[in-house]
Write the structure tokens for this entry.
Amino acid sequence: MSINSNLDQLYRQVIMDHYKNPRNKGSLGEEAVTVDMNNPTCGDRIHLTLQVEDGIIHDAKFDGEGCSISMSSASMMTQAVKGKTVEEAMKLSEIFSDMMTGKDYDDSIDLEDIEALSGVSKFPARIKCATLSWKAMEKGVHQQNQGTEE
């Protein structure tokens, strides 16, 4: 077995682990920022709740249904942004987007499990599946920022 096929197998295992055992599944209370988004082309949908205070994402939970790519990406995203500043979370989202679209990305930041989704970039029809939860997080952060500026 080549190194690439071993890596592909490992990545598949990480993705399936997040799909079968999602982290941060559920919903936060009424005080949380709530975002509902869907991908009409394949039926993926996500309900994301974020607890953002003083520029820090203290908690993130998701619910929804969809393919293994979208649900594992949501699990990974919520893990990655918890405890991060809004700026750090948005930077991670930018890196993830670049990774999904095949652009060069800042690899100085440890992406942990998220890197398992790098192979999705080879399948253009699946990129929206992987990025759905990240777009929801970005939208939630923007909603939070608009709410605090009023």
About this structure: The chain has a mean pLDDT of 92. Residues 23 and 79 are 7 Å apart (CA to CA). The chain has one domain: 3-149.
